[in-house]
Amino acid sequence: MSSRDTVLGRVRRALADVPREEQPGDVPVARDYLRVHGARTPEQTADLLAENLADYRAFVHRCSADGLARLIARLLAERGSASVLVPDGLPPRWLAVADAVRIADRAAGTPRELDAVDSVVTGCAVAVAETGTIVLDGGPAQGRRRITLVPDHHICVVRVPEQVVDSVPQALGRLDPSRPLTWISGPSATSDIELDRVEGVHGPRTLEVVLVAD
């Protein structure tokens, strides 16, 4: 008997008492787990998000809506970015005072072209405080998944408190599972068998998150 036969046999035995006409949605599943761990004010939730992002080695900045354009321009200048990738729907005012050349995201753009871009600026769909996670769903100001994976420097703007939730269950309630979801917890990193950390393997080496007070 093969391993496949063993696994399928276990599945059949587990389903032996299930009527053939029963569908997965016919039996309710109890979801009585905690949706949020503790009670927090919106300010405390934003603080927790910033703390967990920093723990993942992301750089966290805070500003008002009026100061966003100046902050982005400063971050690009400090990085020495001569070019910045701009996804569809990015508010023009975000880059109003930046000196970098704007490069529009194109479906025909190649990975090599994306790799030549110095930075990318995007918004997000939602941010999760308890896990320090930013979620992109390809909506306005976010672009396609690959534009946040190939360039080495990603600036992500999060509107606070509008786009910040406490927990993953709360985030899932805001997201459409049919969309291309990208979950980002800090800059791309991995470790080899000796636990030597290497950054920038599967995505940007540097992640900067800007928390903008609405």
TrEMBL record:
Domain of life, per lineage: Bacteria
InterPro entries per the UniProt record, alphabetical: FTHF_cligase-like_sf, LUD_dom, NagB/RpiA_transferase-like
Domain LUD: 108-212
PANTHER family: LACTATE UTILIZATION PROTEIN C
Name this polypeptide is given: Lactate utilization protein C
Phylogenetic placement of the source organism: Bacteria, Bacillati, Actinomycetota, Actinomycetes, Kitasatosporales
